[in-house]
Write a structure and sequence with these properties.
Number of strands: 0
Radius of gyration: 17 Å
Strand content: under 5%
Pfam families: DUF1405
InterPro entries: DUF1405
Order of helices and strands: HHHHHHHH
Number of helices: 8
Oligomer: single chain
Keywords: Membrane, Transmembrane, Transmembrane helix
Protein name: Membrane protein
Helix content: over 70%
């Protein structure tokens, strides 16, 4: 694992990841164009979930390239990427299981969103965020869930039959992501302490 971390942190690989994430972010906002047009302006910040995740992650990569840290940007990029990466894959698989088929667009979306979650974990050793930064990103996740499923501005789904259930499961996923990163933060501190001892 250490070798992979060293490889992924090479400047040329950070630049490549930054470009891939930036292009994915632009495509993601384009993907949400119709929903944004149909949504009141006040709700726009909570509509394009995945593109906003990759926007923060791209921003974090730019910070890393400058050999600096920005804990809030890193925490938002990490937590949002994991949450919406996992959420998108789960939602696509659920609705495709109802129809009995997975088309090529769904495969593309699943691979790209799963990659968002994976790359977020690959940078764990490099993140500088602490509990308060995780709390800030966590508050945004839960606020986003609340607005999405209270005002029905969540990502458009093939059917609204399961909206309430999906809303509760989405909030649970946000809670799980927050707890995982708090646990990882605690584990990282324990390892650092044991090394110092």
């Amino acid at each position: 694992m250490g070798q992979w971390i060293r490889i992924i942190n090479l400047p040329q690989n950070l630049i490549l990841l930054m470009i891939i994430n930036a292009l994915g972010t632009l495509y993601g906002y384009y993907w949400y164009a119709d929903q944004l047009k149909a949504t009141p302006l006040i709700f726009w910040p909570v509509v394009p979930d995945s593109p906003t995740s990759s926007l923060f992650f791209t921003w974090a990569l730019i910070v890393f390239l400058r050999k600096k840290h920005s804990p809030y940007i890193e925490s938002f990029g990490a937590l949002l990427s994991v949450k919406y990466g996992v959420w998108a894959v789960a939602i696509i698989l659920f609705f495709d299981s109802q129809s009995g088929m997975i088309n090529s667009a769904d495969w593309m979306l699943m691979v790209s969103h799963f990659s968002m979650a994976v790359e977020s974990f690959l940078f764990l050793p490099r993140y500088s965020f602490r509990g308060r930064h995780i709390a800030a990103a966590g508050c945004w996740l839960l606020f986003n869930d609340l607005i999405d499923y209270t005002f029905d501005v969540h990502p458009w789904l093939p059917s609204d039959t399961y909206d309430t259930t999906i809303g509760w499961l989405t909030a649970c996923l946000s809670g799980a992501v927050i707890l995982v990163f708090l646990w990882l933060k605690g584990s990282k501190q324990k390892r650092a302490t044991s090394i110092l001892e």
